[in-house]
Amino acid sequence: MIRIPSSRKRAKTDEKLNLVPIMDAVFIFIFFLLMSASFLSIYEISSDVPIVSDVEPPKDKKDPLALTLTAETNKLTLSRGIPSRPFKTFTRGSEGEFNYEELHGTLIDVKKQHLDENTIIFEPSGDLTYDEIVKIMDAVRMLQRTDEAIFKKNKEGLDEKIKELFSKIIFSNLMS
Fold it and tell me: 12-29 pLDDT, tens per residue?
């Protein structure tokens, strides 16, 4: 009588691949990816694109303010009206910085005269740094807590505090 080896008697079981360590590693990787993404801060400053049209603008009773801020290498120029007429120029100080406080104060005076105006056209040159453009935009857009309060009448005839200077910034030379 021939004896059959014991290894043939046993049914072979398929060995399964242990995926638990791989899944643990993937979940830990996802966890660290999500944790590192939470430290990334992205800020957005909204701006409109200039409107190009062949249609004549509607005739209003008053001339538009058309406030324009031209930023060049060594000076900032505020202009108003159509055609544009410069009325204030700001140069770099001894430290090489523009006087953003003086720009802000001038814009507050303009806002007091034109309470309903929210638009400014911004023409930066290519040789300004990103930080300078952001500082200029901050001086143009926001009223600070220390600024004098400006009020205007709302639709009901009540005084309403103005919270922003010229919040609608239009870049005029995006292609240059």
Answer: 677 788 889 999 999 999
**Distance between CA atoms of 86 and 7, rounded to whole angstroms?**
99
Q: Which residue from 150, 175, 146, 154 is spatially nearest to 164, judged by alpha carbons?
A: 150
**pLDDT at 33 (0 to 100):** 84
Compare 71 and 53 and report the one with higher pLDDT: 71
User: Which of 68, 59, 73 has its CA nearest to residue 87?
Assistant: 68
Report the number of secondary-structure helices (H) and strands (E) in the chain.
Answer: 4, 7
Bridge partner residues of 77 (DSSP): 70, 89
Peptide bond into 83 cis (omega under 30): yes
100 φ, ψ (degrees, to nearest 5):
-70, -30
| Structure-token match 């979940």, residue found | 27
For the chain, give every domain's residue range. Answer: 68-171
